[in-house]
Design brief:
The complex is a heterotrimer of chains A (184), B (995) and C (102). Chain A is α+β, with helices and mostly antiparallel strands and 184 residues long. Chain A has helices at 38-48, 88-92, 117-122, 168-178; strands spanning 16-17, 22-25, 30-36, 59-61, 67-73, 76-81, 98-102, 107-113, 139-144, 147-155, 158-164. Chain A has two domains: 16-27 and 106-178, Probable tRNA modification gtpase trme, domain 1 (Gyrase A, domain 2); 30-102, Heterotetrameric sarcosine oxidase (Alpha-Beta Plaits), CATH 3.30.70. Chain A contains four helices and eleven strands; from the N terminus they run βββαβββαββαβββα. A six-stranded antiparallel sheet of chain A has the order 1-2-8-11-10-9. A five-stranded antiparallel sheet of chain A has the order 4-5-6-3-7. By secondary structure, chain B is of the alpha+beta class. Chain B has five domains: 18-128, Roll (Ubiquitin-like (UB roll)), CATH 3.10.20; 164-292 and 418-491, 3-Layer(bba) Sandwich (FAD/NAD(P)-binding domain), CATH 3.50.50; 501-572, Arc Repressor Mutant, subunit A (Orthogonal Bundle); 656-838, Probable tRNA modification gtpase trme, domain 1 (Gyrase A, domain 2, 2-Layer Sandwich); 852-994, Probable tRNA modification gtpase trme, domain 1 (Gyrase A, domain 2, 2-Layer Sandwich). In chain B, strand 30 and strand 31 (523-524) form a beta hairpin. Chain C is built from two helices and six strands; from the N terminus they run E-E-E-H-E-E-E-H. The longest helix of chain C has 8 residues, at 37-44. Chain C has one domain: 2-Layer Sandwich (Folate-binding fold), CATH 3.30.2270. In chain C, the strands form two sheets. A four-stranded antiparallel sheet of chain C has the order 3-4-5-6, with no helix packed on it. Chain C is globular, with a radius of gyration of 15 Å. The chains are: A alpha+beta (184), B alpha+beta (995), C alpha+beta (102). Chains in contact: A-B, A-C, B-C. Chains A and B meet through strand 7 and helix 4 of A and strand 8, strand 15, strand 32, strand 40 and helix 22 of B. Chain C: This is Sarcosine oxidase subunit delta. Chain C: One of its GO terms (biological process) is tetrahydrofolate metabolic process. Chain C: Pfam families: SoxD. Chain C: GO terms for molecular function: sarcosine oxidase activity. Chain C: InterPro entries: SoxD, SoxD_sf.
């Protein structure tokens, strides 16, 4: 009998922190890349139980808060389900034109949290991350140092840093180095 | 004692806080807060360096970042060492080591000083003219010698152990300069509710208030007001005050780069502190409050150690408590130097004379001078200075004839130059103000405003009022409009107007004396006149011919003098001659600050696949493929690379091998028009490919050349799993998106990168099926059910899989795609099956050899952007009946269908043991005279263990018509004979893959 | 680092998120297979490379992923306007008068 394969996430053991900021790996989440034209947005939102937002740089959460839909482009959303639920199946029932691709294993995430979280990200992200310009719930694909990331502001002092799997060492290394700087 | 020249009660440093440091091997004592310059002056050391060209002894000129002379090598330890640091900026810390530069064997006795005696030879343009002939001598003789003798400090030779930090910031208002103007502007902006960054290159706020002790602001001493105001600003939530921070570059759209020196003044910095921090600030409005820089007087031998700017002497006295001499002469062309003279006299320093070029100084100055017993010599000039390592006397010419006055320091002031550098960097054009004879900021081209000294404002109250208005207006512009009632009363500052530029009396065109304009590059007034005589009529040419203003101080003290002398020689007005443009950086910036985090492991992302840990455990040697770390080969005990690769190659064909193919690019193409889209992107046709089947595809650029290739699988009617080359993954997706978004936007299809979603475990070889069969559920692996070039979905080790039956080796094989987090566990399970059967793990090198044995090309290695599918022998992959695809027209271009094109062929060396070098050129006749006619080059070459000989692929002109011909590969030591063959070296019929 | 207004994200974003993508308004012939050598030359090789106002394609590659068009002054580096793919060239006269980059 063959053992069922276990999941190994690349950020396992990657944790760092100071008095003002912590970096912790996010637990496994299922993720879906949704591409759709306008007419499919409402049915997809219903099927997924979370509104696919239509405004740039915004995200929406499901009622239980476990599922988030991020606006990434005018016809592109990233849906993250922290409970790890199957996201392909509900979409399969939607007849309106769309494309759903499972990317649960393509992306991984670090959670950067604390008073110094914004400063840590500002070490490598050229966007304006002030609460005024990047409020709670804001999300964007952007750059961190030399790699592409998707940033989500979960609360005033917490960011989720989504990135491709193979960049884990870089992203963790970059943030761990950035938080050594005590100035926030 | 912290130096004999420290005056009790003077200055702001605390006598009890002593700091010991070393200068040129001697231990000195300074005070906390001293710069290296002030600490050395306190100890009576004026000789701090040798000049660049003539090796003339030099002392300190200024007390800030404008310093051209006192450049030092500063170190903490052997690795933490930085050359060319301004002694006037570097603060002393316990244990600091400083060294003078550009001298040998010692600062006091320097062999290079012979250049000074030979100086007639070294005039401007000397190098250009002298070392022209004979031509060959330049490379062999002159250049090495000049390079050896030139240069300033010596670069450190150890890696820098410090780390550097970076921060992007967005603020409403950035204020540069924390003098009266900057503090007032920052206060107004901050109190209006704006977010503010206030930066200053000095260790603390104050600017000119450091030395101008006569100023009263809101009833306080000016300097105290500055400290209180800075503290008040620091306490505000919306303000960040950055000291020791230079705004060095002003770029487009109000993007300003600041470099903060965090630890250079600390004796024992915390290891987590970055040495420097680069701030990249985007400001809605920039307020420039950068003040003005004093100019020296240009007269004979004006570079003697002990001759310095009047404001610098005042700063050393009033801030550091240091008298720059015991008998200090003054030479000025404006009123501001009088304040320095009076302060020195009041501190008990003898001031034998103030030499003023003017007939009458400003109101009240003569009587104050008389009260202090200072002789003022009006309408006079200093025409010479004696004393090689320290000035001993000045020669004055004037109404009383020529007199020699003994002095041990001479302070000079020709006037003040508004610091318009950042304004100029913002692309603003400076405007000549004929009334005050200064260049001032003209129209603002960015959202910036200049206030105070840098804007030509001389009155203190006027400066404060202008700054408050600017700060308020900047805040309003950023939408911050809290009620503001701010009034600051200020009075008593020196007057920054008046003065002269160019050479002073006795240093005119008829003079042969050395009158220095640019100290750092040893440019004299004579050099500038020579440049004009030689035909340089543009200030840009004069600058380059003489190097005036081209040293690392960028001519902060010299530009205006140089311009005035050039204008005079040209017989034109200064504004007609024009000012050179200022460019970043304002002061030198370390590479550490510029690269900040991007060094070592963070220099470039190292991408690791799911198998990295496993491969490491298996002893893999890794190679870099783009940013990826890929297992290259897996040596066993005693094996070198050749042995390991040979074993791996044979094992795969005899048994099986396991390989990580995850780095191949993967794109999920989804939508009803997916096949239609692929038809346009690839040369092949996709409509008829059935779900569950795979096909090798080639994509071209519009010009008809191969862009990328890979296997494409149809997962469903409306869903394809596309693979690309490893290196091509990002650009292929970009290429597809480009066409989809801009040329074919009506197609109903979307693209998603899935490169990293899937871990790909290739199992190749006759035993491949035996290895995976026990692990797979729900897929019939039999040849009939799952033939070569098919794909199935099911489970492996309980994880979902897209199982491909594909082969890049010519052996029967599978590529197991599993969601990446399952990759390692599945790989371990596969290995558990594979190892007992005698299979091996193999790396990229074996992959390369095996594919070459089968004549499979690698795009980018066997093609180079000029190869068509026909050239590569892949004409079969071009669909004949499609009306359009990217490259369809390019392929028909006359040159692409002409005969004699370079075509991909196989090469077999006549001696099977000889392995060709990749890149080697191929000729038909090795005996022809050089330059030989090259037919092509070797693109891939390996020792093939399975063929028992060397094999190679090559691009050869008309290659497909040369089958069986003998060609030659000339190498430096021999010529290698080769036979042109087909590209398939192993299993020519291709039977094994179906096995 | 420039700020570029992305017409899809509807705000200015840092240049690091963008990639330049060549000259704009060069439509791929719909009868591609049949065009003459001269037409192919014009389409594929000839670019205007002006000193002054240039129409360019950019991609917000590390943002929303969209290609869009821009009018940029190659002398000053200033963006005069950005607009969505497929939209017509904006009126230059009105832009140069306003010139605020949006």
């Amino acid at each position: 009998m063959v053992e069922t394969a276990a999941m190994i996430l690349p950020h396992e053991g990657n944790a760092a922190g100071t008095g003002v900021v912590t970096i912790t790996p996010a637990a496994f989440a299922s993720r879906l890349s949704i591409r759709a034209r306008a007419e499919a947005v409402a049915p997809l939102s219903r099927a997924l139980g979370v509104k696919l937002p239509d405004a740039p740089k915004t995200s929406a959460k499901s009622r239980n808060g476990k599922r988030t839909a991020l606006w990434l482009g005018p016809d592109e959303w990233l849906v993250i389900d922290e409970a790890g639920a199957d996201l392909m199946a509900p979409c399969a029932k939607v007849k309106q034109l769309h494309a759903a691709v499972d990317i649960s294993h393509r992306n991984v995430a670090l959670i950067v949290s604390g008073k110094g979280a914004e400063a840590a990200l500002k070490a490598g992200c050229p966007q304006n991350l002030s609460l005024e310009a990047f409020p709670v719930g804001a999300c964007s694909r952007t750059m961190l140092g030399k790699v592409e990331v998707v940033l989500v502001r979960d609360d005033a002092e917490t960011f989720r840093v989504e990135h491709w799997r193979s960049f884990s060492d870089y992203v963790f290394g970059f943030l761990a180095e950035a938080i050594r700087d005590p100035v926030i | 004692m912290s130096g004999a020249n420290r005056i009790a009660g003077a200055g702001r440093l605390t006598p009890a806080r002593k700091v010991r440091f070393m200068f040129d091997g001697e231990i000195y004592t300074g005070l906390e807060g001293d710069t290296l310059a002030s600490a050395l002056l306190a100890n009576g050391v004026h000789l701090m360096g040798r000049s660049f060209k003539y090796h003339r002894p030099r002392g300190v000129l200024g007390a800030g970042s404008e310093e051209p002379n006192a450049l030092m090598d500063i170190s903490r330890d052997s690795a933490r060492r930085q050359p060319n640091v301004r002694a006037t900026v570097q603060e002393v810390f316990e244990g600091m080591r400083a060294g003078s530069q550009n001298r040998w064997p010692s600062l006091a006795f320097d062999v290079g000083a012979v250049n000074d005696m030979l100086s007639p030879m070294f005039a401007a343009g000397f190098y250009y003219k002298t070392f022209m002939w004979p031509k060959v001598a330049w490379q062999k003789l002159y250049e090495p010698f000049i390079r050896g003798a030139a240069g300033l400090g010596v670069a450190p030779d150890e890696p820098d152990p410090d780390h550097y930090s970076s921060r992007y910031e967005h603020v409403d208002v950035l204020v540069v300069g924390a003098g009266v103007a900057g503090l007032s502007a920052a206060l107004a902006a901050a109190m209006s509710g704006a977010s503010v960054i206030l930066c200053d290159e000095q260790a603390g706020a104050g600017g000119a208030l450091r030395y101008d002790t006569d100023v009263t602001i809101d009833g306080d001493n000016g300097y105290d007001w500055a400290q209180n105001t800075a503290a008040k600003l620091t306490a505000m939530d919306n303000v960040r005050v950055l000291t020791r921070t230079t705004a060095f570059g002003y770029y487009a759209q109000n993007f300003v780069a600041l470099c903060e020196r965090v630890t250079d003044h600390l004796s024992d910095p915390h290891p987590d502190l970055p040495r420097e921090r680069l701030w990249q600030v985007r400001a809605q409005k920039v307020v420039l409050a950068t003040g003005a820089i004093e100019r020296h007087m240009v007269f004979a031998d004006n570079d003697r150690p002990g001759i310095m700017l009047a404001s610098a002497a005042r700063a050393y006295l009033n801030h550091y408590g240091v008298a720059v001499g015991s008998k200090v002469g003054v030479y000025t062309a404006n009123d501001s130097a009088y304040a320095a003279a009076f302060d020195l006299a009041r501190a008990g320093v003898s001031v034998p004379a103030i030499v003023d070029t003017r007939d009458a100084p400003g109101e009240g100055l003569l009587s104050t001078a008389a009260d202090l017993g200072i002789d003022v010599m009006t309408a006079s000039a200093v025409v010479g200075a004696k004393g090689r390592r320290r000035i001993s006397s000045m020669t004055v010419e004037g109404g009383r004839g020529k007199t020699q006055i003994p002095v041990d320091a001479l302070i000079t002031s020709a006037g003040w130059t508004p610091a318009v550098h950042l304004y100029s960097q913002s692309r603003g054009k400076v405007v000549w103000d004929p009334e005050t004879e200064r260049f001032l900021p003209g129209d603002n081209v960015q959202a910036s405003v200049s206030v105070g000294g840098c804007n030509g404002v001389t009155g203190l109250q006027e400066t404060v009022d202008e700054a408050i208005a600017a700060g308020r207006s900047a805040a309003l512009g950023a939408g911050k409009s809290k009620r503001l009632s701010l009034r600051i009363e200020a009075a008593g500052a020196i007057d920054w107007s008046g003065g002269m530029s160019g050479s002073a009396r006795g240093a005119g065109a008829d003079s042969t004396a050395k009158t220095f304009v640019d100290f750092q590059n040893d440019v004299t007034a004579k050099d500038i006149r020579l440049a004009v005589r030689e035909g340089m009529h543009s200030i840009e040419h004069v600058k380059r011919f003489t190097t005036n203003g081209m040293a690392s101080d960028q001519g902060k003290t010299s530009n205006i003098h140089g311009l005035a002398i050039a204008a005079e020689s040209l017989g034109r007005q200064m504004p007609e001659v024009g000012l050179t443009t200022f460019r970043p950086p304002y002061t030198p910036v370390t590479y550490g600050a510029i690269v900040n985090h991007s060094r070592g492991k963070l220099f470039d992302p190292a991408r690791k696949t799911f198998s990295h840990a496993w491969s490491t455990k298996q002893g893999a040697v890794f190679e870099d493929v783009g940013n990826w770390k890929r297992a290259w080969y897996f040596p066993r005990a005693g094996e070198d690379m050749h042995a390991a690769v040979s074993r791996e190659c044979k094992t795969v064909r005899e048994t099986a091998g396991v390989f990580d193919a995850s780095t191949l690019g993967k794109i999920e193409v989804v939508g009803p028009d997916a096949a239609k889209f692929l038809d346009l992107i690839y040369t092949n046709g996709w409509q008829k490919l059935a779900p569950g089947r795979c096909k090798y595809g080639i994509m071209l650029r519009e010009d008809g050349f191969i862009y990328d290739d890979g296997v494409v699988a149809r997962m469903a009617e409306d869903r394809f799993h596309v693979t690309t080359t490893t290196g091509g993954a990002p650009r292929v997706l970009n290429h597809m998106e480009d066409y989809l978004q801009t040329e074919f936007p009506d197609l109903d299809v979307w693209l998603t990168s899935t490169t990293e979603q899937w871990a790909v475990i290739a199992v190749q070889g006759p035993k491949a099926r035996d290895i995976i069969a026990p692990l797979v559920e729900g897929i019939d692996l039999s040849n009939d059910a799952m033939p070569h070039m098919s794909v199935r979905e099911g489970k492996i080790c309980g994880a979902p899989t897209r199982l491909f039956r594909v082969s890049f080796t010519g052996e029967p094989g599978y590529e197991i795609n599993v969601p990446a987090h399952y990759g390692q566990a599945v790989l371990e399970a596969v290995w558990k099956q594979a190892e007992p059967l005698g299979a091996c793990a193999y790396g990229t090198e074996t992959m390369h050899v095996l594919r070459a044995e089968k004549g499979f090309i690698i795009v980018g290695q066997d093609t180079d952007g000029t190869v068509t599918p026909h050239d590569a022998g892949l004409g079969w992959a071009i669909a004949k009946s499609k009306p359009d695809f990217v490259g369809i027209r390019g392929l028909k271009r006359p040159d692409l269908v002409a005969g004699g094109r370079k075509q991909l062929v196989g090469l077999k060396t006549k001696n099977p043991e000889t392995v060709l070098e990749e890149g080697a050129q191929i000729v038909a006749d090795p005996n022809q005279p050089t330059p030989m006619t090259m037919l092509g080059h070797v693109t891939s070459s390996y020792w093939s263990p399975n063929c028992g000989r060397s094999i190679a692929m090559a691009l050869v002109a008309g290659g497909q018509d040369r089958m069986g011909d003998t060609l030659y590969v000339p190498m430096p030591d021999r010529t290698i004979e080769v036979e042109v063959t087909g590209m398939v070296f192993f299993d020519e019929k291709g039977e094994r893959v179906n096995g | 680092m420039l700020l570029i207004y992305c017409p899809y994200c509807q705000e200015e974003r840092p240049e690091l998120e963008f990639a330049h993508a060549g000259e704009a308004h060069i439509a791929r012939p719909t009868n591609m297979a049949d065009i003459s050598d001269e037409e192919f030359e014009t389409f594929f090789f000839i670019r205007s490379n002006p000193k002054g106002l240039a129409y360019e394609r950019w991609r917000h590659v590390h943002g929303c992923g969209c290609f869009f068009n821009a009018v940029r002054d190659t002398v000053s580096d200033k963006f005069l306007a950005t607009y969505k793919t497929g939209e017509p060239k904006p009126d230059i006269d009105s832009l140069t008068k306003k010139g605020d980059g949006k």
